[in-house]
Amino acid sequence: MHLSRRTTLLGLGALTLSACATTTTTTSRTSTGLAADLRPTPNAAYDAWVASFRGRAAAAGISQSTLDAAFRGTGYLPGVVRRDRNQTEFSRTLEDYLSIAASDERVSKGRAAFARHRSTLNAVEARYGVPANIVTAIWGLESFYGERRGDVPVISATSTLAFDGRRGAFFEKQLIEALRILQSGDVSPAKLTGSWAGAMGHTQFIPTSYQSFAVDFTGDGRRDIWSDDPSDSLASTAAYLDRNGWTSGVDWGREVTGGTSSGTIIQPQPGGPRFAVTSNFRVIKRYNNSDSYAIGVGHLADRIVGGGPLRGTFPPDRYGLTKDDRIALQRRLTARGFDIGGTDGVLGTKSRAAITAYQTGQGLPATGEPSVALLRALGG
Is CB count within 10 Å lower at the N or C end of the chain? Predict the structure, then answer.
């Protein structure tokens, strides 16, 4: 596989489905838990597209019975199109990224998940040579250890995006492979769910990646990455890394605190920590082509098995604020009754909305931008 999941699906692995998603819109939700705009909506043009697609699917070997079962109850999802068109590549600093990727909660849940599934993880490591803590860290970043796997019907999502046409050929290929998954009997149509863009299971495989790398680790005859049992997902992730060149016995890398070190040295954030990385760091980037993601996986993996926080420090941000300053700003806004969604030092949508509201109430220009002056004005 020559394209990483991030190359093909922007942001899917970049903490979007997992705990780090920051949405800019508010949508109502139905009793099923899905946002209202992720429910099928009548669309005659989409229906006509599906009718024409059925012929192409049949030519690709998809049976009529599979097509009938797959499209029963599905439909056009307007929210999928909106999310695809509004998608951006977040320019988070590495400091912000790691504040989320290796948060106290994600570390503690990771340690618990690692202990709970240690027997399976050890068996996966023995078969594929990929360390158990690396696999666990990817699981944590992709779906918060299975808590956020996504519940959007994959057939509806991929067919909507194929019909929309922005990346029509890519998503039609995903749709065909999703239909093959159904035809093989690995999962029922009702359980074939995932993210709004069709990434599925505990470690968020798109259908083509599933077909190339998913394994039946439990031996029950199905490559089941959707069930509450994460065994097949964890093994599939290890298989993915193994087949993309993972070298057993070689670490991902480490933080560099001295002068010189062997290996390739990178410093993703100017003035921040430096890292000596190995060939396995580049293999992690085949899963998601981002230095921050690969460092996030490696650092979280280290933390899961008892490692400590990074020793290096990050410089103040472009507003002159350190992480401690940003945490103090969030705490002071919270004390004034604003809902900012937590005090992690990452100034996301809620924090900026709170800043805007405070500025408006004080008769100040409503920029939504933090500052040292704002921190002082909020007091202790």
Answer: C
